[in-house]
Write a structure and sequence with these properties.
The chain is an alpha/beta fold. The chain has helices at 38-46, 91-94, 134-137, 140-153, 168-179, 192-200, 213-221, 235-244, 265-270, 284-293, 312-321; strands at 2-8, 11-16, 26-36, 58-66, 78-81, 84-85, 105-106, 118-122, 126-128, 161-164, 185-188, 204-206, 227-230, 250-253, 274-277, 303-308, 328-332. It is globular, with a radius of gyration of 20 Å. The N and C termini lie close together (11 Å). The structure holds zinc ion (ZN) (2 copies). One zinc ion binds next to helix 4. One zinc ion (ZN) binds at residues 86-87, 90, 92-93, 101-103.
Length: 334
């Protein structure tokens, strides 16, 4: 089959690789759509993944074969998949916190992902999507990440909330906050196109390079934000989130911080600011799928390009690594 293989730092190539076969308890899915995630871009640019990896964990497709002893799935089923491969026996798995599993595998990181014609995973990871549009179903994973962050934050309608970053995660974060009744909400994003998308979806937005976050929040939220969702992961944006959050407030970090971040913890201490980093999702994946099946939210409004797998290097990873007006790029293996 053809797959996009991470060959080295900043090099991804589409080439022939052996097609996966369904082992015991597994199913093989013909990939219909796979989204390029910000974390894939970090993996591509940072060298944190092993060469030879097939990335891609936001996808949907059709079951083509099932291995021995596989219950609940049959060829022809339309599915998406939970991105975590839990061991199932460690204390974290026992609590349902599979994203903290002691022996965790992850689709597209430790296990071949969906930038390929076919993908094999344990059947337990697949979820039926019914008649849902494949592209919409491929957005279940990023939606589950922001639902996980929302739950971890304990955010309430009385909070003043700042979302830092208007990529897929920041924009979906704002969507699920509005859905939870948070009305005092602002989004910081330097890119004008992304700000326009944020405004269309109902968020007051501003350019943090031209307006101080604290001042904007004062004017639009009536005070410093009591919760900040940091969806960028750069040292500067994490520090700014920490400075901007109100006394006694919380900073929730979803951004992938690939560099160490120098922080003023004296300010955090005197002002009792708390920090929570969140990773991936647990049962929120099923909550995300329910929301999408119910017609809530419009993740496809964030899909700015759809490209064939053969173009993933130049039009996908290449373009997303430079200056661009993309939000979510969807890849079609056909
Ligand atoms: Zn993702
Ligand atoms: Zn485990």
């Amino acid at each position: 089959m053809r797959a996009a293989v991470l060959e080295d730092v900043g090099i991804i190539a589409v080439r022939e690789v052996p097609a996966p076969e369904a082992g015991p308890g597994e199913a093989v899915v013909k990939v219909a759509v796979a989204g390029i995630c910000g974390s894939d871009l970090h993996g591509y640019a940072s060298g944190m993944y092993e060469p030879g990896l097939i990335m891609g964990h936001e996808f949907s497709g059709v079951v083509s074969s099932v291995g021995p002893g596989t219950a609940g799935l049959k060829p022809g089923d339309r599915v998406t998949a939970h991105p975590i491969l839990p061991c199932g026996v460690c204390p974290y798995c026992a609590e349902g916190r599979v994203n903290l599993c002691d022996a965790m595998g992850t689709v597209g990181i430790t296990h071949a992902g969906a930038f390929a014609e076919w993908i094999a995973l344990p059947a337990a990871n697949f979820r039926p999507i019914g008649e849902m549009d494949f592209r919409r179903a491929a957005c279940t994973e990023p939606l589950s990440v922001v639902l996980h962050a929302r739950r971890a934050s304990g955010v309430a309608p009385s909070d003043r909330v700042l979302v830092v970053g208007g990529g897929t995660i920041g924009l979906l974060m704002a969507d699920v906050l509005r859905l939870a009744g948070i009305s005092r909400l602002a989004l910081a994003e330097p890119n004008a196109f992304r700000r326009a998308v944020a405004e269309r979806r109902g968020s007051a937005s501003f350019d943090p390079l031209h307006e101080e976050a604290g001042r904007f929040c004062e004017r639009h939220l009536g005070g410093a934000p009591t919760v900040v969702f940091e969806c960028v992961g750069l040292p500067a944006t994490i520090r700014e989130a920490a400075q901007t959050v109100a006394k006694g407030g919380r900073v929730v970090v979803l951004g992938v911080a690939t560099e160490p971040v120098e922080m003023d913890f004296l300010d955090a201490m005197y002002n009792e600011k708390s920090f929570q980093a969140v990773y991936s999702c647990t049962s929120e994946f099923d909550e995300a799928l329910r929301l999408l099946k119910g017609g809530a939210l419009d993740p496809l409004g964030l899909a700015t390009s759809e490209i064939p797998l053969s173009a993933i290097a130049e039009e996908g990873f290449g373009r997303l690594s430079g200056h661009h007006d993309e939000i979510k790029v969807l890849v079609h293996p056909d």
